[in-house]
Amino acid sequence: MVLMNWELIGHEWAVNLLGRHIANDNVRQAYLITGPDGVGKRTLAMRFAQALNCSDSAKPGEICGQCRSCQFIQRKQFPDLHIVEAEDVGGILKIDQIRELQHQLALSPYEGKRRVALLLRFHEANANAANALLKTLEEPASKVVMLLTAQSKETLLPTISSRCEILPLRDVSRDQIEEALIERGEGHEQAALLARLAAGRPGWAFHYASNPDLLNERTENLEDLLNILQTGRLERFKFVERLTRDWERERKRGGEHPRLRAIGALEHWVSLWRDAMMLAYDAMAEQRNVDRAQDIQMLVSALPARQISENLGRIERLKRDLQKNANVRLAIENLMLDLPRIPGG
């Protein structure tokens, strides 16, 4: 039986599993939900929190969506829901946050059936915070369920992941994402493009659909890449200096941290190089950047397949380094030294 009222796109197996745990009164003390950013980890955790505390569901494991518990959890105002995360995406989750959580979890539920602790992006926890949480996992309080999200179990201490029921979320099909976008009001052409670019991540697709400026930013990022490939080192370093200065200025006005801006730009670059590599090697994989077919063909015509693959690897490694708090300007400048130069006008 598929519990459709969780209203999650994809991941039916995870919904069924968690629903059965509730229906059979066999809920674990801790769950680790893993997968790429935007695949649905947070949404699944929030739906599980609602199902655990719903006061008016038709049957155990389902969600009414209308009771006080469901409504307040959706708005993140439920007194027995505790959300812990680093201050910024890519930041550090600290031990003081875990200690405060431990104090809250020691109390009996105030209103709900269970206290639910949602620890988002726990791969961002520092060593002290991770070790502090381990003590809670070893001696869990009754009527407490802990939900951790992370990119993969390998990004956490083995002693933490081994104490959790692990739910690895996989990519959602392009057709499912496209259909969901159309149902939410997107035009067919836009929905098709977003579904391809999302690469199996419905959260990413909805985020871009709700923020049209992000697609404009993608266009700027790709144009920057193509221009860089046609310039020498001096021009490239000037570009990095100007770009990081602009990002820092925007941050001071309340914008995103430069590290997040850089990671977002590199994600767009990775997507384009990935398409070029697939075309260069005649792979059967689906092209994502269908609106940039001419640029992809240009890269394949100008560079050998091996070099395209190497460039993709460099940018992916740089993205990972930035996620580990590498210096933004220095890291991008190093990349500028390695990217090839393509003659053009």
In short:
54% of the residues lie in helices and 7% in strands. The protein has 345 residues and is of the alpha/beta class.
Please, could you describe this protein's structure?
By secondary structure, the chain is of the alpha/beta class. The protein folds into two domains: about 5-170, P-loop containing nucleotide triphosphate hydrolases (Rossmann fold); about 210-340, no CATH class. About 55% of the residues lie in helices and about 5% in strands. The chain has helices at about 10-25, 40-55, 70-75, 95-105, 125-140, 160, 175-185, 190-200, 200-210, 215-230, 235-250, 260-280, 295-300, 305-325, 330-340, and strands spanning about 30-35, 80-85, 115-120, 145-150, 165-170. The chain has a five-stranded parallel sheet with strand order 2-3-4-1-5, sandwiched between helices. Helix 12 packs across helix 13 and helix 14 (about 305-325) runs antiparallel to helix 15. The longest helix is centred in the last third of the chain and has 23 residues, at about 260-280. It is globular and about 65 Å long.
Just name the CATH architecture of the largest domain: 3-Layer(aba) Sandwich
Strand-residue fraction? Answer: 5-15%
Count of beta strands = 5
Helix tally? 15
Alpha-beta classification: alpha/beta
Strand order of the largest sheet: 2-3-4-1-5
Helix content: 40-55%
Largest sheet: 5 strands, parallel
The CATH topology label of the largest domain is: Rossmann fold
Q: At the first level of CATH, what is the class of the largest domain?
A: Alpha Beta
Rg on CA atoms, Å: 22 Å
Low-confidence stretches: none
Q: How many domains make up the coordinates?
A: 2
The helix/strand order is: HEHHEHEHEHEHHHHHHHHH
Q: Between the first and last Cα atoms, what is the distance in angstroms? A: 59 Å
Taking all residues together, what is the mean pLDDT? 93
**So what's the overall shape?**
globular
